[in-house]
């Protein structure tokens, strides 16, 4: 068996375990929390009082205008200088959540704004409150339109979790770095890590396509809402 193949086979269990233990939980938790934060931010920017709207806009402006890696460094390495100490995983979770929240808020805000005003008027005409109209009429329609861009955001997050290695989270990529430090085979190990990320992204892309086709079957395209 070639040396490179043996090395990849020997390191595969370690890389997969790191992915299962850290990469997958970090991705799922960050996306779930970020999506909730994004929804709150989007609703605030669309419907809240002006002071709250300005705060939400400032948050989105700062996060979208600075690199994710810098945000992680500020949280993990910068906050201790003001007395806030965080372990690596919580720091990464906060950083990714804030980042996803800002980007997903723009997607959610756009799709909510794309819903025709007639949908609001129809909900109000049958006695719904604003909260009922939002929960029963507007958000279900907006969710169908938001599936493709939010799915792309989720797939990007899977790959972006590799940045957590920079703040010592022992996820998949940092595990590859540790093996490289002992084997001195960076090309083989980094290609292997890239192939694992590629496999994860391919599976998620396939699931995204199925989800889009399912929503499209029930009239969930943007054209159907206009």
From TrEMBL:
Parts of the chain that traverse the membrane: 20-46, 58-79, 187-207
InterPro entries: AA_ABC_transptr_permease_3TM (IPR010065), ArtM/GltK/GlnP/TcyL/YhdX-like (IPR043429), MetI-like (IPR000515), MetI-like_sf (IPR035906)
Record localization: Cell inner membrane; Cell membrane
CDD domains per UniProt: TM_PBP2
Residue ranges of domain ABC transmembrane type-1 in the record: 20-208
Topology class, membrane: Multi-pass membrane protein
One Pfam family, short name: BPD_transp_1
Keywords, alphabetical: Amino-acid transport, Cell membrane, Membrane, Transmembrane, Transmembrane helix, Transport
Record-stated family: Belongs to the binding-protein-dependent transport system permease family. HisMQ subfamily.
Stated name of the protein: Cysteine ABC transporter permease
